[in-house]
Specification:
single chain; alpha/beta; four-stranded antiparallel β-sheet; 10 strands; 37% helix; binds adenosine-5'-diphosphate
């Protein structure tokens, strides 16, 4: 579903990604761990061209990521992204946040988009918040809206960049539970997180980055040894 071959990325003279080779299969959940500054966020952001890589090859669902705008748009349609900061539109209600892209980009009818948004809000456990504004919600609720918004575009792949790092501890579980449900429903997921419990329980494979490189990759058993 995602293929990265010898991907390199520089910010000016600083090399943030060094010959990244990574494959994510359909329905696979891959968790990326590693110290701060190791390139985790950069890696995930190259996949939908939020950051541009300078060499190597990225292919997402058989679409090569080139400078071709149509390819980039096609890849963005297939990849839902969830950020550390929820990035909701503050002046739109929860329902409007979720229906905006389906109506504008997928050309869905408003009623149809709203019905789907309500189903997604049920799925993430906050249907009663549909007509609130983001600022009226807790961080955990906002992040669940962000997940619902990404899912509303019916992506084939979900990319998560430290989705719980900005949350108070008591809200982390509610977001991880939604991600777990998504993983068990068969979504293909690439997740940057520091939540080792999630990695151990949910990941099919864990990738450990350091200094812009993948230094280890394997199943959770490889990283967590039972005493
Ligand atoms: P991580 O997600 O593992 O914390 P990042 O991918 O955010 O790491 O960053 C990797 C390295 O690239 C860090 O040293 C960071 O300072 C640097 N970096 C990230 N974004 C930029 C940028 N826009 N310009 C210059 N350097 C950057
Ligand atoms: P994260 O916690 O997600 O790794 P950071 O705190 O490293 O993010 O970076 C936040 C923002 O600042 C990002 O957009 C990143 O691209 C940018 N950034 C990070 N390091 C640098 C840097 N050395 N020079 C310029 N921009 C940077």
């Amino acid at each position: 579903m995602i293929i990265m071959r010898d991907v390199c990325k520089w910010y000016g003279n600083f090399q943030a990604l060094r010959n990244i080779n990574l494959r994510v299969k359909p329905k696979e959940v891959v968790v990326i761990i590693g110290p701060s500054g190791s390139g985790k966020s950069t890696l995930i952001r190259t996949i939908n061209r939020l950051e541009k890589h300078q060499s190597g090859e990225i292919i997402v669902d058989n679409i090569p990521l080139t400078d071709n705008v149509r390819n980039i748009e096609a890849i963005r349609m297939e990849t839902g992204m969830v950020f550390q900061q929820f990035n909701l539109f503050p002046h739109l209600t929860v329902l409007q946040n979720i229906t905006l892209a389906p109506i504008k980009v997928r050309k869905r009818k408003k009623a149809e988009a709203e019905a789907m948004a309500m189903q997604l809000l049920e799925r993430v456990g906050i249907p009663e918040q549909a007509n609130k504004y983001p600022a009226q919600l807790s961080g955990g609720q906002q992040q669940r809206v962000a997940i619902a918004r990404a899912l509303a575009m019916q992506p084939k792949i979900m990319l998560f960049d430290e989705p719980t790092s900005a949350l108070d501890p008591e809200m982390i579980k509610e977001v991880l539970d939604v991600m777990k449900e998504l993983a068990y429903s068969g979504m293909t997921m690439l997740v940057v997180t520091h939540e080792m419990g999630f990695a151990r329980e949910v990941a099919d494979r864990i990738v450990f980055m350091d200094g812009g490189e993948i230094v280890e990759s394997g199943p959770p058993e490889h990283f967590f040894h039972n005493p």
